[in-house]
Amino acid sequence: MFKSEKENLFLSYCATTHDFASKDKTVEETVSSAKSWLLRLLENRLAYKDLQNYGWEVTENSAKLPIFVDKKLVRLTEKIHSVKISNPIIVTIDVELPKAQKSL
Questions:
Q1: Domain range list for the chain
Q2: Rounded alpha-carbon distances, angstroms, from residue 50 to 2, 21, 59, 74, 97
Q3: Is this structure's pTM higher than 0.90?
Q4: Which of 39, 77, 86, 93 is most buried, by the most CB atoms less than 10 A from its CB?
């Protein structure tokens, strides 16, 4: 996550969910947006193949995410947003694994 001087918003990119749409006026609001997207993906982990396509290992009772090092996260975020980030904000989002929806 980083503060965009151009848009005066915090922009983020989550490599594990391919979420580059989360942005808001504060770090907390941006994290909340990213967390909502993560929970939606986790709830639908059996109905959709998105998480598996992103490198996750999922079952009805578990979800194991791929691991990225901080340097790679920053590099991917710079690439997605076409900027050079000088002060990255690395945020870990922890959630309880929601019950999997078997169908839509």
A1: 2-81
A2: 25, 16, 13, 22, 16
A3: no
A4: 77
